[in-house]
Amino acid sequence: MATDHSRVAARFMISPAVLLLLGWMIIPLSMTIYFSFLNYNLLSPGMEEWIGFTNYEYFLTDPAFFAALGNTLLLVGGVLLITIVGGIGLALLLDQPMWGQGIVRILVIAPFFVMPTVSALVWKNMFMNPVNGLFAHAAKALGFAPFDFFAHAPLFSIIMIVAWQWLPFATLIMLTALQSLDQEQLEAAKMDGARKFNRFFHITLPHMSRAITVVILIQTIFLLSIFAEILVTTNGGPGYASTNITYLVYAQSLLQFDVGGGSAGGIVAVILANIVAFFLMRMIGKNLET
Amino acid sequence: MGSIKLENVSKSFGTVEVIPPLNLDINEGEFVVFVGPSGCGKSTLLRLIAGLEDVTSGTISIDGQDATEIRPARRGLAMVFQSYALYPHMSVRKNIAFPLKMAKLDQAEIDRKVNKAAEVLNLASYIDRRPGQLSGGQRQRVAIGRAIVREPKAFLFDEPLSNLDAALRVNMRLEISELHQNLKTTMVYVTHDQVEAMTMADKIVVLRAGVIEQVGSPLELYRQPANKFVASFIGSPKMNFIDGEAASKYQAHTIGVRPEHLRFSRESGPWKGVVGVAEHLGSDTFLYVTLEGGEQFTVRTVGNAEFHHGDVVYLSAEPENIYRFDENGLAIK
Ligand SMILES: Nc1ncnc2c1ncn2[C@@H]1O[C@H](COP(=O)(O)OP(=O)(O)O)[C@@H](O)[C@H]1O
Ligand SMILES: [Mg+2]
Fold it and tell me: Domain ABC transporter spans what residues (chain B) (predicted)?
């Protein structure tokens, strides 16, 4: 029970932290917004001038923007699908009593500790390389022609790499959810005549809905800004086939030295992320309530 | 419909034998209570009957048919769990309808049965709520509702009242007994509370460490306990025991006297003691007496006895109500 007096004191005491955080966010954001209205190219310094919404017009009407938007959604959706289905599957497996459970669990989390650039390079050079990669060797051993992943299925390859990185996270969250399920509920369902599939569908899955929500929310935030994996594998290509919004902003501002256009793209990305977050919260936020 | 027979049923977890081979007959329509101290294997025995655990050896037959290898749902038994085990994401209606839905009944039939159960158990007013929004007693009713819609051959209850407060416990006890009167279905009920056993059972099965110590009606167990364990477990307050010289007068190793069968006087009697605590309940008085030999005795008397801490009291037993036991704790007939 806080008195009025202590409440005022509390607000006063936390205000420096709040102000610091606010400044941390507001200053870069407002500078980005400011730049986005300028004709600001690093190749012609000192020539900045106010050009209103022109940068936005260029960014939003660029065909690359729509390609990147589609790729972003595919990347996020594809990785979410694989990690959630795979995470639930792996969690169900790991929940079975077995010998060496502790070690297996550590092995499963391991990919999470590998840096994105490193894991993408490992995949690129050790697995997916059409000459030396393991997949190429396997294909040759089976009598098929090796498949050049990054040339013919660049987005799919990146989805695979990112899904591999995030699968451990999803698995861990699902596993803890699974272990918190009251065994008596499953036994009651067994007595009530529910077979394995029905028990999973009617008891286990609803119990895990909150964990699934958490995985979707957290992963979406990180997946919208995937960058390193694209940079070290395909560089967004071929063409724009594996460019997402984040990578497009980078290409615009740093490869073409167009700070104004890049800033406009960044603001568009922020707005899109907020729209996605809004719908996510609307759609599944109620799972988090009770 | 609803007789259960256990033949040489045993259960081990790993190398630990929790239930040595035992035999038990549960007749159709009977209310059977498994009673025993915590950890004696009551739940395990119930779960063996339900099919939630596999027997290590022996056979379980239901209605004369071998059910040992049949999966739980097919045995036609319904279970009420200690934690109720309601499905938290489903409304009360859906919880009760779940077994019917799994049995693929058509929706009209399901609705009819659920409504009937809701009426019998008085839970219509909260049928659209979730279990999380219900009190303990209401959850208990829903759990029973989910069991009765299946119209099982027998009900299995695992300490269903242990999560309720004392007043509610007495109420639910009566309701379950009433339910049994109305349905006339076999019920197997597990409890560690001998009062529940005495008040509800047609037949009590007393267990200790997985072994059946005695089977009988409540009054049989009260009047003719087979051994010291049953004698001290059944009846409240517990039976008083005394051994040595006092017992050998009766040609026994130990004799037992129930608190309600002790007489007391201020002047004389065979056993002299000092009152430790006197509990005056109005209708009854309980005296906790320490005898000269160090034994703790409890005395129950109707009405008010004017005894207080430190008073000297002489106790004697009603001769026809003395229980005699040999050195192995078995009753001498
Ligand atoms: N799944 C299990 N694995 C190993 N031991 C168990 C298991 N279930 C019960 N036990 C043991 O069996 C004994 C009887 O347990 P239980 O039937 O639950 O007792 P009660 O219900 O009478 O309190 C206990 O000693 C308990 O530790
Ligand atoms: Mg138990």
Answer: 4-234
Domain spanning A53-289: CATH superfamily: MetI-like (1.10.3720.10)
pLDDT per residue as tens digits for the range A19-56 = 999 999 899 999 989 888 888 877 777 777 888 888 88
Q: Tell me which of A191, A198, A205 to substitute to probe the interface with B (most B C-beta atoms closer than 10 Å).
A: A191
- Ligand 1 in contact with B40 (CB < 6 A)? yes
Q: Please name which of B222, B173, B181, B221 lies closest in space to residue B200, comparing C-alpha atoms.
A: B173
pLDDT of A76-100, one tens digit each? 999 999 999 999 999 988 888 877 7
- Residue type (1 letter), A238: P
- The answer to whether the CB of A59 falls within 8 A of the CB of A265 is yes
Note whether B13 and B160 are same-domain residues. yes
What is the full DSSP assignment across A174-205? HHHHHHTS-HHHHHHHHHTT--HHHHIIIIIH
Residue type, A222: F
Handedness of CA A61, A67, A70, A72 (dihedral sign): negative
- The string of DSSP codes covering B265-312 is ESS--SEEEEEEEEEE-SSEEEEEEEETTS-EEEEEEES-----TT-E
Q: Cα distance from A95 to chain B (closest Cα, Å)?
A: 19
Closest CA to B226 of B216, B235, B236: B216
Q: Do A217 and A211 meet the contact criterion of CB atoms below 8 Å apart?
A: no
Look-up of token digits 């409504």: B115
Residues B201 and B66 in one domain: yes
How many structural domains is chain B composed of? 2
* Chain B contact probe: residue of A180, A183, A185, A192 with most B CBs at under 10 A: A192
- This model of the complex carries an ipTM of 0.84
B333 in a domain, yes or no? no
The yes-or-no verdict on residue B12 having pLDDT over 90 is yes
Contact state of A193 with B89 under an 8 Å Cβ cutoff: no
What's the angle, vertex CA A282, arms to CA A277 and CA A283, rounded to 5?
100
